Amino acid sequence: MAKPIVAVVGRPNVGKSTFFNKIAGKRISIVEDKPGVTRDRIYADVEWLNNKFTLIDTGGIEPNNNDIILSQMKRQAEIAMDTADVIVFMLDGKSGLTTTDEEIAGILRRTKKPIVLVVNKVDSNKLSEHFYDFYTLGMGEPIPISSVNGLNLGDLLDEIVARFPEDTDEGYDEDVIKVAVIGKPNVGKSSLINTLLGENRVIVSDIAGTTRDAIDTPFEFNDDKYVFIDTAGIRRKSRVNENVEKYSVLRSLTAIERSDVCLILIDANEGVTEQDKRIAGYAHEAGRASIIIVNKWDLIEKDNNTYTEYTKNIRNQLSFMKYAPILFISSKTKQRVNKVLEYVKYVANQHSMRISTGALNDLISEAVLLNQPPSDKGKRLKIYYGTQVSVKPPRFVLFVNDVELAHFSYIRYIENQIRQNYNYEGTPIILESREKK
Ligand code: GDP
Ligand code: GDP
C-alpha cells in the first residue's frame, strides 16, 4: 500500500527546515548506514502512532528578492499540490500574517488536497495577538507550534494523520503490475514509454473503474496486465519545475510509492549522477522491485571492455541495490527494448515470491552449520526459526535468543544464503530479528 506523502509549504524563514529536521531527527528511519544512500534529507520516513508517511522538504532554495520569492513559492506550492496527500501550510507566529502568505494561500486554495494550517514560532503557551489574523485566511483552525521547543508537535502530527486518505487502494486488480518509469529530466522516460507502447505485441487497454485513468496508462503484454504509473506527469513536463533538480526527484516519489516495479533510467552519456542515486535510493527504501536501465546506449562508443567497465561503475555507484538487474538499451534504435517487459515480469514475480517456512528453516539450519553464529561474552546467537511474513518486498522474521547478538554482518550472511538459493533478483529483502524467550 502506498505511503501518504506530506509536504510543508510556506515562505522563507517561517521555520520549514527547522520543523523538518525536528521531525526527521526524532523519528527518522532513513537507512543512513547503508552505503550509497545519500543522506541528503529531501524526505524523511516518519511514523506517528502506527501511521507511516513520507515527509518531504520542498524548500531549500534561497530567493533573494520579492519576485523570486513569489515564483519560487508558486512552484513549491504546485509541487506540493501535485505530489502530496496532505499539505502543511506553515506561517510565522512572530511576524504575523504577510501578503506573501496570502498569495500562497491563494495558490493553495485551488487544490482539493487537505491543508493543515500551522503557525510556527509560538514558543510558549501564550498566543500573540497576531495569531487571530491567521483565521482570516479561511483555511480552518490554525495550529500553534514551536519547532524549536517541540511544542504541540504531537497535536500537529495527529491533525496530519487524521487527514490521510481513507483508502490508498489503487483500484487495480492484484494481478496488475504497476510500473514506474523514473529518472531525471531528459533521460528518456517518455521515449521509452512510447517505444514500449508502440511495440506490436503490446495492447494498450482500458481497465475500467480506476480512479487513475487520467494519469496512468494500462496495457497488456503476453496476456499479462500492466500499468505505467503517472504517465501524464512524465508527458506533461512542466519544464520550469523539472529543471530544479530537487523538484524532479520529489516528483518521482509519488510514482515510486504507487508502483510495484521501478525502471530506474540512467543516461549512458552521463553515468550515475547524485540525482540518480537519490531516486534509486528512494525506490530501494520504499521496498520496490527495481531494474536499472541504461538508456541512450547507442551514443556510447564501445570496445571490448565498455560493457564490463560500465557495469562495474554502476554497481559501485548504486552499491545498495546489487540485486537489481542492469539493462543497456536505446529507446531510439530500440536495441533491447523488447527485453524490458520480460524483466519487469520477472522481477515482479521475484518481488512477490514466498518461501515456505519449512524450506526456509532447512536453509537456516544449513547456513548455521556452515558458518557459526556470533557470540559475545560466552553467549552465542541462536536462531530458533524463521518465517516469511510478507511479500512485495519479501520480509522475513528470525526468532532468536538475543537480538543484540544478531549482528548486521550475520544477518547479511543469511540474506546472501537466501539469495543464493532463491535468487530474489530485482528486489530488496528485509530481514528482522526478534527475541523469543
Ligand atoms: P525556512 O526558510 O522556512 O526553512 O526557515 P528555517 O527553518 O531556516 O528558520 C528560519 C529561522 O527561524 C531560523 O533562524 C530558525 O532558528 C527560526 N525558527 C524556526 N522555528 C522556530 C521556532 O519554533 N521558534 C523560534 N523562536 N524560532 C524559530
Ligand atoms: P524524459 O524527459 O526523461 O521523458 O526524456 P525524453 O524521452 O523526452 O528524451 C529526452 C531526449 O533524449 C529526447 O531528445 C530524445 O529523443 C532523446 N533520447 C531518448 N532516448 C534516447 C536514446 O536511447 N538514444 C538517443 N540517442 N537519444 C534518446
From TrEMBL:
Q: Which HAMAP family match?
A: GTPase_Der
Q: Which residues form the EngA-type G domain?
A: 4-168, 177-352
Q: Which GO terms describe its molecular function?
A: GTP binding; ribosome binding
Ordered alphabetically, the record's keywords are: GTP-binding, Nucleotide-binding, Repeat, Ribosome biogenesis
The similarity comment for this entry is: Belongs to the TRAFAC class TrmE-Era-EngA-EngB-Septin-like GTPase superfamily. EngA (Der) GTPase family.
Point out the signal peptide segment: none
Mind telling me which Pfam families this protein's record contains?
A: KH_dom-like (PF14714), MMR_HSR1 (PF01926)
- General function of this protein: GTPase that plays an essential role in the late steps of ribosome biogenesis.
Under the subunit heading, UniProt states: Associates with the 50S ribosomal subunit.
Q: Which residues bind GTP 1?
A: 10-17, 57-61, 120-123
In this chain, GTP 2 is annotated as bound at 183-190, 230-234, 295-298
GO BP, sorted A to Z: ribosome biogenesis
Q: What is this protein called?
A: GTPase Der
